Amino acid sequence: MSIEEKGQFSVHYVQVMDKDGNIDMTLHPNLDESKIKELYHLMMLLRVMDEKCFNLQRSGKIGTYAQTRGQEASEVGSAFALEERDWVVPSFREMGVFIVRGVDKAKLIQGWNGDTRAFANPDGAHNLPLSIPIASQLLHAVGLAWAAKLQKKDEVVMVYFGDGATSEGDFHEAMNFAGVYKLPIVFFNQNNQWAISTPRTIQTATQTIAQKAIAYGFEGVQVDGNDVLGVYRITKEAIEKARRGEGPTLIEALTFRMGDHTTSDDAAKYRDPALVEEWKQKDPLLRLEKYFQKKGTWSDEYKNWVVSTVTKEVEDAVAAGLSVEAPSYEQLFDDVFAEKPWCLVEQQQQLKEELEGKKE
Ligand SMILES: Cc1ncc(C[n+]2csc(CCOP(=O)(O)OP(=O)(O)O)c2C)c(N)n1
Ligand SMILES: [Mg+2]
Questions:
Q1: Which residues does the chain have with pLDDT short of 70?
Q2: Cα–Cα distance measured from residue 190 to residue 70, given in angstroms and rounded to the nearest whole number
């Protein structure tokens, strides 16, 4: 008998709601209608916020921005399954996760405007700041999960990363450590199928990303990342499993980056536009709208109300976020280490002298 036949090596693909809004009731996550409407509201908030940030960059008001368009279900559905005490360790494309976690949207704008003070964690909230170095956050997350286990805290860590990040050594080290120590962690892979211009097909020779978990001794599952109910269900199960002390799960949310990599990129140079058109049919918001239509709980008035409510929220956040006075150059050196090392002290002094003209 092969090991696979013993049932140890299987990878499941889960979809609760198809692209036309039909639900497999056997997999329904038992969220009541008001919660499903809340998910729609949050996803629309993310979409409007995302469009706004893109436009702010184009009009020179903020710096480089990484769009989330197309990934709303993956981000909102997964974060919705967390408890407040759980930890979120994001990469740089998880604005939807921050929104669900209740992070002040003005701070998000301030952060994308390059002001790192925006990432200070108020009142000990369990959200780490976004991480630009690919995959480095996975090791921080494993450290948090190990600490939670050693201290017997009832906390689960959820770490986000892209398909490209799975080619980094940090990913494999983190997965191995989490497997060996059976840590309370969920590895949430947003497989948007692109790492800048590198398609998923040449990122790895494996058929799925989920199956990589097998090599580290725990479960991997692939979910339709544009199906918010599927993402919620699978993530919730993985979180509960981790909380019971049954170890990690790798979730591969199969989605698609509808926009460019960032505002500094032009995907039209390397990506067939037909592919983008194809994925438009699988839009996470659209399928939820179709679901509500089928249930008879949809109206244009409702949609208009949602759009106008979130638009006002976003406009207020932008006004507040952009009106914060820029930090002084000295603050560049703060909040990196608990105690500033001598080399940073020297650099800070050197910059001060150069900028304030105290030394040639
Ligand atoms: C260690 C490191 N290497 C390279 C880069 C440059 N870089 C920024 S984003 C990116 C691709 C990431 O792709 P993926 O992990 O799929 O995330 P996505 O951008 O699709 O969300 C690369 C290579 C970086 N930021 N950090
Ligand atoms: Mg990617």
A1: 1-8, 358-360
A2: 11
Same domain for 236 and 134, yes or no, is yes
- Tell me the whole-structure pTM to 2 decimals: 0.95
Same domain, 319 and 360: no
> What is the torsion angle, in degrees rounded to the nearest 10, for the CA atoms of residue 319, residue 118, residue 307 and residue 19?
150
| Ligand 1 site residues, Cβ closer than 6 angstroms | 93, 132-134, 162-165, 192, 194-196, 257, 261
Tokens 């990599």 found at? 261
Nearest to 192 by CA among 312, 105, 115, 94: 94
* Claim to verify: residue 30 and residue 157 sit in the same structural domain: yes
Contact in structure between 141 and 87 (CB atoms under 8 Å): yes
196 alpha carbon – ligand 1 mean position (Å): 7
| Residue range(s) defining the domain that contains residue 259 | 4-326
Number of structural domains found in the chain: 2
Ligand 1 nearest-atom number relative to CA 168: 1
Q: Minimal CA–CA distance to 84: which of 125, 39, 42?
A: 125
Two structure tokens written together for 309: 């409510």
pLDDT tens, position by position, 138-194: 999 999 999 999 999 999 999 999 999 999 999 999 999 999 999 999 999 999 999
Q: From the CA atom positions of the chain, what is the Rg in Å?
A: 21
Based on the domain organization, do 214 and 352 belong to the same domain?
no
- Residue located nearest, by CA, to atom 3 of ligand 1: 134
pLDDT tens digit sequence for 308-355: 999 999 999 999 999 999 998 888 888 778 899 999 999 999 999 999
Count CB atoms within 10 A of the CB of residue 340.
14
Residue 247 maps to which CATH number? Answer: 3.40.50.970
**Which pLDDT belongs to residue 34?**
96
Buried b (16+ CB within 10 A) or exposed e, 261-287: bbbebebeeebeeeebeebeebbbbeb
